[in-house]
Design a protein that fits this description.
The protein is of the alpha/beta class and 505 residues long. Helix content is 33%, strand content 18%. It has an 8-stranded parallel beta sheet. It has a 5-stranded mixed beta sheet with strand order 2-3-5-4-7. The chain has a two-stranded antiparallel ribbon with strand order 1-6. The protein is globular, with a radius of gyration of 24 Å. It binds acetamide. The site of acetamide has 4 residues, from loops.
Length: 505
């Protein structure tokens, strides 16, 4: 269809059948750069329709028709309309994304017809705010960036050995004591240099509720993660009685890696976890609640009389089997509360099948979990850990050892060659931003983009090919990120690889 539709001061919006949320989002997103009021009118030229009888669009798909004098956006569910609003933004000149008023740009979209449905229902990013706290203003900005890329899940890693950021009214010391680390390691994980500056931060319940509402208006679900039974040293610093050694006072951990200090297995600990998760569920309506579950050494349980007694009472072969028992108990609590337990999986053998798992080591762990009957969100580190450097250039910021380059991120951890029953268990994929080595919002943006754009592209459209689909569009992605003021990594031209954006296609 030739021609353009132009947004100008005469453009009005008609929202039908409960499409008001999408109309409001369109207005909110276009206002800063364009200054256009886009008022509601029964004769609007931009028509947004929620029609539950529309077939073939699922929960998140949409249809968009752009003609010279009218735009029609339709979906069966509100989330589909919100995705369509992001497409309208993407079809406009990149300046439409500017946070400041832009003069002299015609706000034109090419005419055409789009029907667009995502392959995966979980298109996520995990942000570790435990190792380095981030202000809620940045969480909102990051949510906006996810929504622009039609990602629908922000997974917040709220607690770890090095910091507890989730407010819990029943246990105030979790944030008062567990939210403060006396110092932070400088350099690689085996360094012995510290900055000698306390690192502190915690959210209020009001801030988190506000974030949840803000994200929901953009089609993004915030999934909370509370780590247990390992990666819990900040909680042990706040409440030593949760541990395995009576009378021991630990500090909030100042090193990186796997910590031997883990939660105990006495009834008081299970009660603590249930109380914490009760408050978490009160703040986060997400159907899924993540309970960590990774990297839990059994060393302390092996020498704890309480844990040994528990092992024997339960008839378990060894204390390390307490890990599956612990997660199973907490998972049952979440299920009884109407939520779905989610955890990192190294080896999901001991988990009940109603756990959804995030295999983070290798893709094969994902296949094994799917074959055992788990729903799976793929998170293999070789392609989804965005805290790894993007190249082996010594100028890249300090990160984990290894490289996750842009083509790897575009593979996005999506499985290939699995039998259909296992492939059907894959809910989607997710990029990870662990923050041992990431301190600031600018560093997060540099590591996240454009790799999250690549991962999001594949998560939405499995047929997207790196060289013929994503790479030619990369310059456009980068132009948008620049317009938004995102501190993204600029992709340098490489030998043997066509310069994105100049490739004929
Ligand atoms: C993890 O990387 N320990 C989930």
């Amino acid at each position: 269809m030739p021609g353009h539709f132009t947004f100008d001061s005469s453009t009005t919006v008609r929202a039908e059948g409960g499409a008001q949320g999408a109309a409001k989002l369109l207005r909110t997103l276009l206002a800063p750069a364009t200054g256009l009021p886009l008022p509601t009118s029964t004769t609007g030229t931009v028509v947004i329709v929620l029609d539950p009888y529309l077939r073939g669009l699922g929960t998140e798909g949409y249809g968009l028709t752009i003609a010279p004098n009218a735009v029609l956006l339709r979906a069966a569910r509100p989330a589909g309309l919100l995705n369509g609003v992001q497409t309208i933004r993407q079809l406009l000149p990149a300046e439409a994304l500017s946070p400041r008023p832009v003069a002299g740009v015609p706000w034109r979209m090419p005419c055409g017809q789009i029907t667009d449905v995502p392959r995966y229902r979980w298109r996520g990013a995990m942000l570790d705010v435990a190792r380095h706290f981030q202000p809620v203003s940045f969480l909102r900005r990051f949510t906006d960036l996810l929504a622009l890329h039609k990602m629908n899940t922000l997974h917040l890693h709220l607690t770890d050995d090095q910091g507890w950021r989730m407010p819990v009214s029943a246990y105030p010391r979790l944030t008062e004591v567990g939210g403060v680390r006396s110092r932070t390691l400088l350099g690689p994980a085996d360094s012995d240099q510290y900055d000698d500056t306390p690192h502190a931060g915690a959210y209020t319940a009001g801030q988190l509720r506000g974030l949840v509402a803000y994200a929901a208006e953009r089609g993004v679900t915030v999934v909370p993660e509370i780590e247990m039974p390992g990666h819990a040293r900040a909680a042990l610093a706040a409440y030593p009685e949760l541990g395995n050694v009576p009378g021991r006072q630990l500090d909030v951990w100042t090193r990186w890696g796997v910590c031997e200090n883990v939660l105990g297995v006495h009834d008081g600990v299970l009660e603590f976890c249930r109380t914490v998760l009760g408050e978490v569920m009160d703040v986060f309506p997400s159907p899924y609640v993540h309970i960590g579950g990774d990297e839990c050494p059994a060393t302390e349980w092996e020498s704890s009389p309480v844990a040994l007694r528990r092992t024997a009472e339960l008839g378990l072969a060894a204390p390390k089997a307490l890990h599956g028992w612990f997660l199973g108990r907490i998972g049952a609590f979440l299920l009884a509360a109407g939520r779905r337990p989610l955890c990192w999986a190294e080896d999901s053998g001991a988990l009940p099948p109603d756990f959804t798992v995030m295999p983070w080591r290798d893709t094969e762990h994902g296949l094994a979990a799917a074959r055992r009957g788990h729903d799976v969100v793929m998170a293999p580190y070789r392609s989804t850990y965005l805290d790894y450097p993007q190249s082996d250039d010594p100028g890249e910021p300090l990160g984990q050892q290894g490289v996750v380059d842009l083509p790897a991120a575009h593979r996005g951890g999506a499985p290939t060659g699995w039998e259909p029953e296992s492939a059907a268990r894959v809910l989607g994929t997710q990029g990870q931003l662990w923050s041992e080595f990431i301190r600031t919002p600018e560093e997060i943006e540099y590591l996240a983009f454009p790799r999250l754009a690549a991962l999001a592209d594949r998560a939405w459209n499995p047929a997207s090919e790196w060289s013929t689909d994503f790479l030619p569009a990369l310059r456009v992605h980068e132009t948008r990120l620049t317009a938004l003021g995102v501190a993204h990594r600029a992709t340098p031209p490489r030998r043997g690889v066509p310069v994105p954006g100049t490739t004929p296609h």
